[in-house]
Every structure is written in C-alpha cells, then in structure tokens.
TrEMBL record:
Its cofactor is Zn(2+). Pfam families: Lactamase_B (PF00753). This is Glyoxylase-like metal-dependent hydrolase (Beta-lactamase superfamily II). The keyword Cell division does not apply.
C-alpha cells in the first residue's frame, strides 16, 4: 500500500494520493488550495496514474483545486450530494465575514462529478474504499476507509486531539458527536486515522485522549429513572 500526502495552501489541508503500490493507478483525496503542483510531484515521484478524486466534504480548503486536477487528468470527482453545491458556490460553506472573503472567488464543478452514499464501496485503482456518511462538520461530510489495511481518511470529522468545527453553515455539534459514535468508535483501536488537517493518529489514541470522542462514547452501566 502506498499513501503519500502533503499540507496544501494557507489552510494546510492534507491532500493524499493512495495506490496499491508505486507505478500503479491511484486516487487523490482532497486537493485543496494550490495543491496542483504538489499532486503532480507525487504522481511523478511514485509513477502513479490517477483514476479519481475523492472529496471528504465541500469546504473550499478541500476542493479548491479539484477542477484543474480532474481536468488535467480527465478523471471524475466524487462528493456527497449534500455538499455538491459547494463546488461551484464556495461562499455558501462559510458565514459572515469569512463568506465575503470568498464571494469573488469563481470555482466550477469538474466535467464529471459522481455522488457518494453511505455504505457505498468504491472499487478504484485496485483499492476497495468504504464510504461513511459522517455529517456534523458539513451536511455532506464523508470519511473513506480501507478496511483491509485499517486506514481511515477522516476529513474534518476527526483530528488528533480534536474534531472539525461545527459553527459554519451545515454544521451541528450533536450531529458530529453521533457521527463519531457511529463511524469512529466502532472501529478497532489500531485503525490509522489520516485527517484533513494535522498529524495522523489512531482510533485507540483518540478514544483514550480526545475529549470530544469521549463525549461521543455511548454511556454504559445502569440508568436511573427520573
């Protein structure tokens, strides 16, 4: 398994390329701001041929370069339908002053956009990726899992020591806690988490130390009546 990545642009959004091995087909995850050059460098270094771009959600810092990356390689982009509108209207994912900063930015959908659904299994580039719908950061947030290798691309659902913000349009704190409980806490402790920002971690480490994951954990033991 080959997984390589780099933090892109001012937002330092992690962009990844994933392949069975060097010299084979690959998928690209979350090409953010100014990610095109970094993607090209990884493809040359590892002699990879991309077949798709996978988007964990529609926020600008994760999709900024999706149209040029897809266009240059003639590959489709995959995104959940609840976030698809953000591909062409990035300001809709922000609020207040932040939205005005991006109001003049023009982005467009790639020519080929395909929609993700919860539980779907994508067979791409010799890989089998399971799609988990994980709303809370945005309505259309998803994570991608490589079950055989126990690797999770969590986007902005789960970070090392934290979680994605929930104060932007489409975000909801109670919902992200439910996503953590249903899609993260059910995974083995040694599952490697590759997040949208910051360093990698594991489910076990976050289960033990992340206060938000602890809050999301189902309560055990007897309950008292009211």
């Amino acid at each position: 398994m080959l997984i390589a990545g780099f933090p892109a642009g001012a937002f330092q959004t992690n962009c990844y390329v994933v392949a069975p091995a060097a010299g084979e087909e690959c998928v690209i995850v979350d090409p953010g701001q100014d990610a095109t050059e970094g993607v090209d460098e990884l493809l040359r270094e590892h002699r990879l041929k991309p077949v798709a771009v996978l988007l964990t959600h529609g926020h600008l810092d994760h999709v900024w370069s999706v149209a040029p990356v897809c266009g240059a390689r003639d590959v489709p982009a995959w995104i959940h339908p609840d976030d698809r509108h953000l591909l062409s209207d990035p300001a809709a994912g922000w609020s207040g002053t932040s939205a005005s900063l991006f109001g003049g930015l023009t982005l467009s959908e790639p020519d080929d956009v395909r929609e993700l659904s919860d539980g779907a299994v994508l067979e791409l580039a010799g890989l089998e990726l399971v799609v988990d719908h994980t709303p809370g950061h945005t309505r259309g947030s998803v994570s991608f899992r490589l079950p055989d290798d126990q690797v999770m691309f969590s986007g902005d659902l789960l970070f090392a020591g934290s979680i994605g913000r929930t104060d932007l349009p489409g975000g909801d704190y109670a919902t992200i806690l439910r996503s953590l409980a249903a899609k993260c806490l059910t995974l083995p402790d040694d599952t490697v988490v590759l997040p949208g920002h910051g360093p990698q971690t594991t489910i076990g480490r976050e289960r033990a130390t992340n206060p938000y994951v602890k809050e999301a954990a189902p309560q055990s033991g007897p309950t008292r009546g009211i």
